[in-house]
Specification:
Elements (H helix, E strand, L loop, with lengths): L2 H27 L3 H5 L2 E2 L5 E6 L7 E7 L1 E6 L6 E5 L7 E5 L2 E5 L4 H4 L12 H13 L6 E6 L8 E7 L2 E8 L3 E7 L2 E55 L3 E7 L2 E8 L2 E4 L7 E9 L2 E3 L2 E4 L1 E3 L8 E9 L2 E4 L36
Parallel strand pairs: 3-7, 3-9, 4-8, 4-10, 9-11, 10-12, 11-12, 12-13, 12-14, 13-15, 14-20, 15-21, 16-20, 17-21
Antiparallel strand pairs: 1-2, 2-5, 5-8, 6-7, 16-19, 17-18
Length: 356
């Protein structure tokens, strides 16, 4: 071996040893491993990172994930995101303006983003370190993300696009639009009060409890859905290949289109509250548990405060009514002089009269 080669070999070894010494010194001097690695590691080998947005006025949440457990809760006293088992360089989690984005659907352009919303390059050594922790602890690398939202925070939009995920969305209240597109996933919604809720599900299972919304729409293809204690103004359902059972569902307008599968709904309001145009081409129609054939329609010239339209190609329809009376919508229109005006639905004045 040449003398110069030996010299360079010793220099290389010295540099490696010096680098290891400096790294060890820096790790000991750092307040935590997170300050060095960018992640904290649990005993099971999973890496954990958090992003706080307590000081940010986040109003829009955009989540695109696959193979992940997701929880979004609006009952926390603080606002932050906790991510577990998200491999370095394989996802993006960022805040831009009033938007929070978490996504593992990334492309080459996400690595060269100049607005701060792309993938944060963590270095090859951090990727290798993460793989080492997973291997050493036999970690299954199941990704999970939890988003905690302070209930006092304003929310305008929650958009989720998920594949092969488990989603729990609960305790969300405000004038916000919630949109969920899912494939091969499990979706659970509980205690939601929003201006709009939209579910577009393929091969997914959904469970809904205690939902209040002005507009609620389901687009369902295969899978299953269970719904209970829902109060909406406008309900829209498009389904194919599954049975739909909507329990304790109060609505003013229902529009349902069913390709194949049984459709069942029960409401607290009585049958006289709704105009009806209900038809099944291949199936039986039941109203309040009584078989009445394949269709039920009301006089088109009669006035009703609510409406039900259900069209089914193949499947039974079961509609159960209650005993409450659905009241007309009240829209107050003040007079020019500032006094209470007439009720636009009933023509009666909305102000209370003196009790003589």
């Amino acid at each position: 071996m040449k003398v110069t080669s030996i010299i360079f070999l010793f220099v290389s070894v010295a540099l490696v040893l010096g680098g290891l010494f400096l790294m060890r010194y820096a790790r000991n001097a750092a307040p935590s491993d997170t300050a060095i690695d960018g992640y904290a590691y649990n005993e099971d080998g999973s890496n954990v990172s958090e992003i706080s947005f307590d000081e940010n006025e986040i109003t829009k949440y955009a989540i695109t994930l696959s193979d992940c457990e997701i929880e979004i809760a609006g009952s926390s006293g603080s606002s932050y995101v906790s991510l577990s088992n998200f491999k370095p360089n394989q996802y993006k989690a960022s805040i831009s303006g009033k938007s929070l984005t978490v996504s593992d659907d990334i492309s080459i352009t996400d690595y060269i983003s100049f607005d701060g919303t792309g993938v944060k390059f963590a270095g090859i050594w951090q990727t290798l370190l993460s793989e080492y922790h997973s291997f050493r602890n036999e970690n299954n690398d199941q990704k999970s993300v939890t988003i905690y939202i302070d209930p006092d925070k304003e929310i305008n939009q929650i958009n989720l696009n998920i594949t092969n995920c488990t989603l729990r969305l609960h305790d969300i209240k405000g004038q916000c639009d919630i949109s969920i597109t899912s494939k091969e996933s499990s979706v659970e919604l509980n205690n939601i009060d929003a201006s709009m809720v939209m579910l577009d599900m393929t091969d997914s299972d959904a469970s809904l409890l205690d939902i209040t919304s002005d507009k609620l729409s389901y687009t369902l293809e295969n899978g299953s859905i269970e719904s209970m204690k829902t109060t909406v103004n406008t309900l829209t359902v498009v389904s194919d290949g599954l049975d739909v059972d909507l329990k304790d569902t109060d609505f003013r307008t229902l529009s349902a289109t069913v390709a194949t599968g049984n459709f069942s709904i029960n409401t607290n309001y009585d049958i006289t509250s709704y105009s009806r145009a209900i038809t099944t081409n291949e199936g039986i129609l039941y109203i309040n548990g009584v078989e009445i054939g394949s269709s039920s329609t009301t006089d088109k010239d009669a006035e009703y405060v609510g409406s039900i339209t259900i069209n089914s190609e193949s499947g039974n329809i079961n509609v159960t009514f209650g005993t409450y009376i659905l009241l007309p919508e009240v829209v107050e229109e003040p007079d020019d002089d500032g006094e209470d005006g007439e009720d636009s639905e009933t023509g009666e004045t909305s102000s209370e009269e003196d009790g003589n």
